[in-house]
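Components:
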Amino acid sequence: MLSIFPAFSKLQGREITIEEAIHRYVVKRDKRAFDRIYQSYANDLFHFVCSMTNEAMAADVTQKAWLKLLESPNSFQINTNLKAWLFKVARNLLIDELRKSNRLTEQQSEQAGDIDSEQVASVDDQLEVFNRALLALSFEQREAFCLQQDGFSLHDIARMTQTNQETIKTRLRYAKKRLKSALEPSNE
Amino acid sequence: MSKQQPEFNNTEDEQVLAHLYQQRKRQHKAPNEQQAILMARLEQLSRGPKYVKWPNVRYYTSIAASVFAIALMVIVFSLPNSQHSVQKYSQSFVSVELHVLEDENFSPRQYASNNNYREVLYNQAKQDYLASQQQQLTRRLVYAKVLDSDTGLALLTCNNELLQISHSVVDKVLVNRNKSPITFSQGQVFELTLNNQGNIIDIEAKRTDKICS
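Structure:
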């Protein structure tokens, strides 16, 4: 991703940290600070939402999440986790969108089917298999797995999904089991 | 593998999944136009006022008071004079007839009885009443020649005094007297009838211009 302010990300010979950027943006609405924040989190955020829905909706949802930060920076509390805040805002926006289109229950009830081992054996691209297996997970399992992969703790994931850590652990366990079994070559 | 709940303590498996997840992430990057849209919006927001100030109530109150005072002055000074009066009127045309009692101090001792005294008081009151009525009926005629009639009626009296009467006053007088509108021409002589208060109660054109002899 290109930065609009490549030269300005550096202050006195060093690049500003993400914490400094967050502070500067929230307090002073510094454009360079926002650029730094965007560079740090935009791809992760987009990918997470993309894993939960289609690309078009993901683009719309993530843009709304960023606009919320732009237009109401005071809705974010400094010294808390901005990445978690962004992900939570995006998740809530996504759920609202899915509810509007009556697709939320569809997503949640989607159960992972066993990937046909013969099919897997014929697909050389492990990444492609992984992609399909990930999308075949249920909404909650996929969400938990992606959030963990994006660096969030069980505590963070539980807060963002408004559930408890034990539930998150269970979801993670089953998500990884399904993914692993999808990736394993068939045992004959 | 056991069909019971599997344990994912295998760090290699975890690493594989993490690696594949990061690979997947590289396939789904945020669209470039999103960044442009957000920066444009940020630019727009930064151009606006940073703080929304509450309006200065005292300032706007003083402005409103000043505007009100000016408006009031304009209204007061632009109010037309509703009386049928001449703008400039000479004192010489005022005619006031006064009835002054020759003897205002009379002593009751001069009268033989109470009846006589009451009769004197009655006569005095009657005379006062008649005098006031007489004042009301007193009228004065003024003859004047038209000098100008563009922006009102400018007249020169026989005593070389200038009278200025607005067209609206003239129109009202004519309406009150049930007369047709008059066309004024320079040099034309008019007879103005004034009451004792100096108000014009009639206006009439004269055929001769040799009134002031």
